[in-house]
């Protein structure tokens, strides 16, 4: 099933001067689902990367189980839906669909997961958005831990199948040795930018209440420590479940526009996650001129450069670190500026240019062989 979305936001392709010295490519991209059905980080990254590539003049087709929707600028090849009772095996079913697909009409195949059965399809670039080894180690639920444990071996196989493997962080490369290039996740710095701050102290959390994101832990710290010291402080949550406590305001799931507004208005952003392969919300907060305080995890360590651009705190001092920022305007202003500088490293323009270079190098390599 092929369904076509807008070619670009004006309804037609406009090739500017920056296209004149660069080959335009026909790209097959894959991810099991899209953000209209599953608001996970990898689905968003694949979606936005595909859109950015289309904006730069390339032809992109996304192979997925999800239908096209209004935000897609690329074509969507939707695989047939499967019976609900097989939903637990969605990732494995997707791997089977990819194995049966003929990608020969494309210049390059770019997969975001579940490509361990895609043998003999070239040129093939695979992006790893984290490592199953770390996911398994920090999983709270047994079923999640079991699934990620199985994925550890398949992840290594993914890297063997691909012609070129890319990781979003140094930690990802450390866990998957066949990863030869590092390109970080991208953030739309046009969408996420500084704005007017709230007139009272606010802490923003974006994530899940339970599991490794630990929204409930932050709510407890806020109630017992932060609110007790800063009585007019509020905790704003954008999460899958509501959290209880005086001063806690639950927004639930919000639009992209509302999310960017909350980032702009908050004084501090905190997502005390046990594990992040990268940590896009940290960059979204920094791009919005908001200070980041978080737990030690691989993604945060790398994105914040060990604490240069935000604060990494042990659980026992997390609340105090947030209080310091709520009470010290000069300290807050310093880290706001640091974060704005750092966020530019993850702009989509920078990320897409690096992928374009890898695409072209890989295409050239296979053209020489043939």
Q: How would you describe this structure in keywords?
A:
12 helices; disordered N terminus; 8-stranded mixed beta sheet; alpha/beta; 370 residues
Please characterize this protein's 3D structure.
With 370 residues, the protein is α/β, with parallel strands linked by helices. It has helices spanning 41-55, 90-100, 132-138, 142-161, 170-175, 215-229, 256-265, 280-287, 298-303, 315-327, 329-343, 348-369, and strands at 2-4, 26-30, 59-64, 75-78, 108-111, 124-128, 164-167, 181-182, 202-207, 234-239, 248-250, 268-270, 291-294, 311-312. The strands form 2 sheets. An 8-stranded mixed β-sheet has the order 1-4-3-2-5-6-7-8, sandwiched between helices. A 6-stranded parallel β-sheet has the order 11-10-9-12-13-14, sandwiched between helices.
Radius of gyration: 21 Å
- Strand and helix order: EEHEEHEEHHEHEEHEEHEHEHEHHH
| Alpha-beta classification | alpha/beta
Strand order in the sheet with the most strands: 1-4-3-2-5-6-7-8
Name the helicity range.
Answer: 40-55%
């Amino acid at each position: 099933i092929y369904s076509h979305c807008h070619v670009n936001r004006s309804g037609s392709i406009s090739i500017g001067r920056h296209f004149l010295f660069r080959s335009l490519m026909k790209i097959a991209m894959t991810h099991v689902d899209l953000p209209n059905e599953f608001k996970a980080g990898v689905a968003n990254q694949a979606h936005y990367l595909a859109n950015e590539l289309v904006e730069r003049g390339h032809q992109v087709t996304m192979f997925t189980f999800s239908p096209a929707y209004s935000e897609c600028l690329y074509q969507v090849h939707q695989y047939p839906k499967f019976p609900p009772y097989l939903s637990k095996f969605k990732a494995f079913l997707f791997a089977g669909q990819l194995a049966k697909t003929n990608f020969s009409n494309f210049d390059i195949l770019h997969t975001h997961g579940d490509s361990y059965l895609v043998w003999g399809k070239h040129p093939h670039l695979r992006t790893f958005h984290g490592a199953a080894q770390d996911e398994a180690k920090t999983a709270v639920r047994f079923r999640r831990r079991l699934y990620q444990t199985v994925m550890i071996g398949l992840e290594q196989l993914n890297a063997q199948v691909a012609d070129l493997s890319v990781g979003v962080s140094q930690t990802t490369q450390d866990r998957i040795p066949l990863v030869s290039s590092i390109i970080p996740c991208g953030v739309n710095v046009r969408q996420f930018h500084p704005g007017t701050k709230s007139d009272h102290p606010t802490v923003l959390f974006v994530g899940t209440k339970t599991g490794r994101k630990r929204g409930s832990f932050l709510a407890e710290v806020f109630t017992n420590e932060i609110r007790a010291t800063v009585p007019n402080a509020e905790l704003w949550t954008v999460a899958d479940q509501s959290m209880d406590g005086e001063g806690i305001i639950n927004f639930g799931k919000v639009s992209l526009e509302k999310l960017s507004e909350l980032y702009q208005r908050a004084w501090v952003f905190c997502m005390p996650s046990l594990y992040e392969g990268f940590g896009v919300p940290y960059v979204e907060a920094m791009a919005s001129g908001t200070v980041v305080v978080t737990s030690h995890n691989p993604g945060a360590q790398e994105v914040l450069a060990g604490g240069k651009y935000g604060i990494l705190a042990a659980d026992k001092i997390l609340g105090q670190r947030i209080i310091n920022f709520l009470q010290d305007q000069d300290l807050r202003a310093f880290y706001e500026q640091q974060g704005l500088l750092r966020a530019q490293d993850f702009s989509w323009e920078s990320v897409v240019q690096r992928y374009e270079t890898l695409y072209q190098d890989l295409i050239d390599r296979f053209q020489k062989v043939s």
